[in-house]
Amino acid sequence: MTTNLCGLDSYQRIFELQQREVAPLNQAVSVSDDLFRANYATYLEVVTAQRNVLEAELNLTNARRQQLLLLINLYRALAGGWTPPWTGE
């Protein structure tokens, strides 16, 4: 249970850091697109900026997933899990 609490706190911090990373990367996509339209950047730079945003968003999603899995494990540890009701079949 202590491990789940520490892990939950760690993934909360990771999630917050990942959130802070996504916003500037989105701005970088916008800037690189503007530079491309003005012929000051290549399309490869635009695609690279988009890839960086996608990677950061995937990391954000994975951090949130891990956080939720740890929360589920914590609930199970405290309540002993959930047993579905018997349907009589």
From TrEMBL:
Annotated protein name in UniProt: TolC family protein
GO MF term list: efflux transmembrane transporter activity
Organism name: Hymenobacter rubripertinctus
SUPFAM superfamilies: Outer membrane efflux proteins (OEP)
InterPro entries: MdtP/NodT-like
Gene3D superfamilies, A to Z: Outer membrane efflux proteins (OEP) (1.20.1600.10)
PANTHER family in the record: OUTER MEMBRANE CATION EFFLUX PROTEIN, OUTER MEMBRANE PROTEIN-RELATED
Domain of life where this protein originates: Bacteria
